[in-house]
Amino acid sequence: MEIKIGKSRLLLKQGDITQEEVDAIVNAANSSLLGGGGVDGAIHRAGGSEILEQCKKLGGCAPGDAKITTGGKLKAKHVIHTVGPIWRGGGEDEPRILASAYRRSLEVASENHCSSVSFPSISTGAYGYPVTEAAQIALRTIIAFLRKHQELKEARMVLFSPEDFSTYARELRPMTVPDM
Ligand code: AR6
């Protein structure tokens, strides 16, 4: 599924983000930036030790912020490491921190002249964020950014499971009204 935002595109697909051929893939990391399970583990495994070596020099990353490294052996040139919120019921600023994780990742992509960037579903695995609510925030934040930053040609959400793909597609559909 794909929508146009001016000259840019937002694409939803099901798949493994480590296989993406884009300028940057985003990693759903933790504040240490020293690796973990889930998509973080998969990215470090596929990209090799050079990514971790660069991460060690970054001094961690606050929730809602993002930092960039090489893509190592990945097809993607860069990995943008961001940290989403841990879901604690929704009253602990989780929506703001999640939106910030997407926005800061997009800013870092833009600053580093990336014209294509792929995201996983940040915070909805080990961090427990409900997928429907997370999808709304992810899609709204990406769309708002692309409207203002047409230098970013394509943003992709790469959903690992068919269920997550369906949820994101369902939430994107009502957002596809044309600009006034
Ligand atoms: N490609 C795309 N998506 C994937 C892949 C993959 N190869 N593998 C998993 N996912 P999670 P979080 C999906 O737990 O919730 C780590 O240990 C997965 O199905 O990876 O932000 C970090 O170090 C889910 O939909 O990230 C942190 O400690 C989504 O990626 C913590 O987990 C996010 O799940 C971060 O938790």
Describe the structure.
The protein is α/β, with parallel strands linked by helices and 180 residues long. It has a single domain (2-175), classed as Leucine Aminopeptidase, subunit E, domain 1. It contains 5 helices and 7 strands; from the N terminus they run βββααββαβαβα. The protein has helices at residues 38-47, 49-56, 94-111, 131-148, 162-172; strands spanning 2-5, 8-14, 24-29, 66-70, 78-83, 116-119, 154-159. It has a 7-stranded mixed beta sheet, with helices on both faces. α3 packs parallel to α4 (131-148) and α4 (131-148) crosses α5. The longest helix has 18 residues, at 94-111. The two termini are 22 Å apart. The mean pLDDT is 97. Ligand AR6 is lined by residues 16-18, 28-30, 36-40, 42, 84, 120-127, 158, 160-161, 164.
Give a summary of the structure in a few sentences.
This protein has 180 residues and is an alpha/beta fold.
What is the secondary structure topology, with strand pairs?
Elements: E1 2-5, E2 8-14, E3 24-29, H1 38-47, H2 49-56, E4 66-70, E5 78-83, H3 94-111, E6 116-119, H4 131-148, E7 154-159, H5 162-172
Parallel strand pairs: 2-7, 3-5, 3-6, 6-7
Antiparallel strand pairs: 1-2, 4-5
Ligand AR6 binds next to strand 3 and helix 1.
Which ligands are bound?
Answer: ligand AR6
Strand order of the largest sheet: 1-2-7-6-3-5-4
Q: What is the count of DSSP helices, taking H or I runs of 4+ residues?
A: 5
**Major sheet:** 7 strands, mixed
The residue fraction in helices comes out at 25-40%
Beta content comes to 15-25%
- How many β-strand stretches? 7
- What structural class do helix, strand and pairing data support? alpha/beta
Uncertain residue ranges: none
SSE succession: EEEHHEEHEHEH
Roughly how many Å apart are the termini? 22 Å
Radius of gyration: 15 Å
Shape field = globular
